[in-house]
Amino acid sequence: MSKALNAAVDADLARKNVAARMQLSQKQHSEKKVLTAEEVRRFFDTAADAEDRFYALYVVALTTGLRRGELLGLKWSDLDLDRGNLRVQRSLDGHGKPEERAPKRESSRRSVKLVLEAVTALELHRRHQLEDRLRAGPRWDDHDYVFPTNRGTPMSGDNLVKRNLRPLLERAGLPPLTFHELRHTFASLSFATGEHPGMVQKILGHSSIVQTMDTYSHLVPGMADGAAERFGGYLFGSE
């Protein structure tokens, strides 16, 4: 704005640059709710004990930092469980009826390495989904989604939060979180393991390292194949 007004003054279109003395306020980082590693384990245990059908979704969410829409937009064709990889190709979200959208930025279209526990959870989830398809018969509306409704149709993110995530967190004795705060939890745990900010940027799909540092610089002092293994060991207590 100041540059534009300077140009206007030079062209005799304005008498003075009224933005010249403006001082921008410093961006304040609000405290974000995140879970500790122990709380994440408690959350996983609660979901597993309840045989929650979105258990695998939560494991993927908290070990990859995928956005809510990216999780719901995952298709089985995006997964290579033999190699432990997933590709983010689309987002499925929106208020009301879910809509499939292409990623807003090229950085959001990315490949992410899965920890072993996420691969195991997804393999079990696929078996359960095949059982659901058999029970539903011709009522199953197949879209190849990894985390659809119990009829195969696109899952509403708002419904998932209200009907599943919040009750599950309450059952585990944890505070009510949003999916974005699960994403923050992943970033917080990643920095706690000593992960490099550049790797966290790539996994999260941020457009630049500046965005990552601006959001998480307060955590830095405290995933290729090796990064995924290190993160899994920290979170699940495996060697």
> What is the residue-mean pLDDT, rounded to a whole number?
85
Radius of gyration: 21 Å
SS elements, strand count: 5
Known CATH architecture: Orthogonal Bundle
SSE class: mainly alpha
Helix coverage percent of residues? Answer: 40-55%
> How many helices?
10
Bulk shape: globular
The H-level CATH homologous superfamily, spelled out, is Intergrase catalytic core
CATH class: Mainly Alpha
> Which fold name fills CATH's third level, the topology?
hpI Integrase, Chain A
Distance separating the two termini: 54 Å
Structure description:
48% of the residues lie in helices and 6% in strands. Strand 3 (91-93) and strand 4 form a beta hairpin. It has 239 residues and is mainly alpha-helical. The protein has a single domain, classed as Orthogonal Bundle (hpI Integrase, Chain A).
Feature tags:
239 residues; mainly alpha; hpI Integrase, Chain A; three-stranded antiparallel β-sheet; two-stranded antiparallel sheet; 48% helix; 6% strand
Write the layout of secondary structure elements.
Elements: H1 2-10, H2 37-49, H3 55-64, H4 68-72, E1 79-80, E2 85-87, E3 91-93, E4 99-101, E5 111-113, H5 116-136, H6 157-171, H7 179-192, H8 197-204, H9 209-216, H10 225-236
Antiparallel strand pairs: 1-2, 2-5, 3-4
Helix pairs in contact: 2-3, 3-5, 3-7, 8-9
